[in-house]
Amino acid sequence: MRRTALALVTLVLAVGVFAVGCGGEEEASPTPDTVTGTTTDTTTTETTTETTTDGEASDGDPAAGKEIFLGSSGCGTCHTLGDAGTSGTVGPNLDDAQPSYDLVVDRVTNGQGGMPPFSSTLSAEDIQNVAAYVSSVAGS
Description:
- It is a single chain.
- The N and C termini lie far apart (109 Å).
- The chain is an all-alpha fold.
- The model is unreliable at 48-57 (pLDDT under 50).
- 44% of the residues lie in helices and 3% in strands.
- The relative contact order is 0.16.
- The chain has six helices and two strands.
- Strand 1 and strand 2 (86-87) form a beta hairpin.
- Helix 2 packs across helix 6 and helix 5 (101-110) packs across helix 6.
């Protein structure tokens, strides 16, 4: 009797292992092949506004920017800018480069090359003010 029970259990296990190994060739899909009913499509439209500065200040106060340029930020130590009376030679001559407002904001915020970023020492408003000043007087 024990042998018969043992043989029966072994047979059931073998059939179970074989059954588990079969199939599996098809990839299961979490979505059905057909959908019944109705669906609703929703469309979202995004509107953007772009402002071109063409070298003129779009934000910021040039007078406040001049104070920052000449102040503790030390811009004139590295840059030449005639309006500020500075003659630094480490960085680009701003009168020659005549950078746009957007370029000044980017360079003062993020730095590039030998220029360090000033985003941790100047506020966003201060950076906008410097950009407004530099972009409005460079080359004049």
